[in-house]
Amino acid sequence: MEDEIELKTAPADFRFPTTNQTRHCFTRYIEFHRCTTAKGEESNDCERFAKYYRALCPGEWVDKWNEQRESGTFPGPL
Predict the structure, then answer these.
(1) Per-residue pLDDT tens for 12-50?
(2) Domain extents in the chain
(3) Is pTM, for the whole model, over 0.70?
(4) Is the domain covering 22-71 a CATH 1.10.10.10 domain?
(5) Cys bridge to 55: 6, 9, 49, 61, which one at CB 3.0-4.6 A?
């Protein structure tokens, strides 16, 4: 029997009560990178934040933010 793939998205977050998830996406992206800075790139503790932002954020945004982080122009508090 084949393994089933379970699809999940980020859980509801009281800080983001509306259907527009832009801030939720941005916050989860920042939380992930803060976590990896504090605990290291390979930390399993950070994986949940990665899952959340990957589920919420459009890929184009993530690509742009990654480029900005690499060039030192990312607008968020990392």
Answers:
(1) 777 767 667 888 899 999 999 999 999 998 888 999 999
(2) 22-71
(3) yes
(4) no
(5) 9
